[in-house]
Design goal:
About 75% of the residues lie in helices and about 0% in strands. It is elongated.
Length: about 130
């Protein structure tokens, strides 16, 4: 199970930024920008979570809000006005990547064990077929 949830990402963004609650209904730039960061981070780290759930966590109407937010994030990320939001994103990305790396290592180890067992089974079958 993925330890990174939309709620965890939301809490992290609120803790690291000067925004108390990114889910409030507001068009203030600093709140909207942090929501864009949230949408991008949930896309990066919570792929198995539905877009509807991602939008529900920040009280948005539907999944279209998350799609629009990610597109806007991409268009703003190289602009000066978005520097602070991007710094929060980069810091969060580095932090959450630590969990993601551990998950990938765990998955690779499980895959290697399956391959090892498959090879052992092939060797046993081959040994049984060899006539001495």
């Amino acid at each position: 199970m993925n330890p990174i949830t939309p709620e965890l990402i939301k809490d992290y963004i609120e803790q690291e930024s000067n925004v108390q609650d990114i889910s409030v209904k507001s068009r203030k730039k600093e709140i909207v920008f942090m929501r864009y960061v949230y949408y991008q981070l949930t896309y990066d780290f919570c792929r198995e979570t539905t877009q509807q759930r991602v939008s529900d966590v920040v009280n948005r109407r539907d999944h279209a809000s998350t799609i629009h937010g990610r597109k806007t994030f991409e268009s703003l990320k190289n602009q000066k006005v978005f520097e602070y939001a991007l710094s929060i994103y980069e810091k969060a990305y580095r932090e959450f990547s630590k969990y993601d790396v551990n998950k990938k290592i765990e998955t690779l180890l499980l895959d290697l064990e399956k391959q090892r067992q498959k090879l052992i089974n092939q060797i046993e079958v081959t040994d049984a077929q060899v006539v001495y």
